[in-house]
Design brief:
The chain is of the alpha+beta class and 99 residues long. Helix content is 25%, strand content 33%. A hairpin with a 6-residue loop joins strand 1 and strand 2. The longest helix is centred in the middle third of the chain and has 12 residues.
Length: 99
Amino acid sequence: MTTTDPDRTTPATTPARVVEVRYFAAAAEAAGCDAEQVDVPAGTTVGGLLDALVTRHGPALRDVAARCALLVDGVLHRDRDEQVGAPDRVDVLPPFAGG
């Protein structure tokens, strides 16, 4: 993402962070991998992160992600509008044991 600094005529980039995303069970099957590195722009919301992952992996992940819990650095996040800050790890956990 690029923004323009009001004091400069050249674009300034929004800081991003590379995070590890780990997928479990049905989420790993839908994503086609157990883990990956993803660039997360500053100010990313839970919903924005999920949308980016779905864009990367397609509708199978979208369907599973709708039921998943998202742990951001070990903290459960359910509100799609909540910002995730600068995480180091994101775990995508589908319901286990029918749950």
